[in-house]
Specification:
Elements lengths: L2 H11 L3 H39 L4 H8 L1 E6 L5 H12 L4 E7 L1 H12 L21 E6 L5 H9 L4 E6 H8 L1
Antiparallel strand pairs: 1-3, 1-4, 2-3
Length: about 180
């Protein structure tokens, strides 16, 4: 391509001055409109951030729910009968809405699925014993209007209870 062809190509793709001015004006109007929208959006975002700070957390409801979920770990030398008796006593506490027994094997399978899936599964394939065999527990839901601390104190008095945590604390400890 020679210089003459290059100039013709440049003129062919160059925008006429009038069109350039009209386009510039239109973009300027749109930019001002977008600027107002942007300021409004920033204001709303700032207001939301302040509200979140005032509340203390964006997941306040989630945190409240989690604090009502307890994990009750038992002494490792309990018999199955003693574990069932403890479950029966837990079920009698009026502020508990539900409870579920989680065996050591279930705890291990859940842990493996969460942390040793895919290629990492080979890391634990050779284990012959369950490292979480003594991690059997009851998962307890405390009624929303109930005092969780009072429920914890009631449960702590039951024979065979080793430790009580929130479900969130228990899951963090497993990590």
């Amino acid at each position: 391509m020679n210089e003459k062809d290059m100039l013709q190509l440049k003129l062919a793709i160059t925008m006429p001055a009038g069109l350039a001015k009209d386009l510039s004006n239109a973009c300027g109007d749109n930019t001002r409109r977008k600027s107002r929208q942007s300021r409004r959006s920033k204001f709303y975002a700032m207001t939301a951030a302040i509200l979140c700070l005032c509340i203390g957390s964006t997941s306040l409801a989630y945190n409240a729910y989690q604090e009502k979920q307890l994990a009750i770990f038992m002494e490792p030398d309990l018999t199955q009968g003693e574990i069932e008796a403890l479950g029966s006593e837990i079920s009698k506490i009026t502020d508990i809405s539900s409870y579920q027994y989680v065996s050591g094997d279930e705890a291990w399978e859940s842990f493996k699925a969460a942390y040793f899936s895919g290629e990492a599964e080979a890391l634990v394939a050779d284990l012959t014993e369950n490292p979480l065999a003594d991690s059997f527990n009851y998962r307890v839901s405390v009624r929303m209007g109930a005092d969780t601390q009072a429920v914890r104190e009631q449960i702590e008095k039951l024979p065979g209870v080793r430790k009580i945590t929130t479900v969130r604390e228990a899951e963090t400890a497993e990590e």
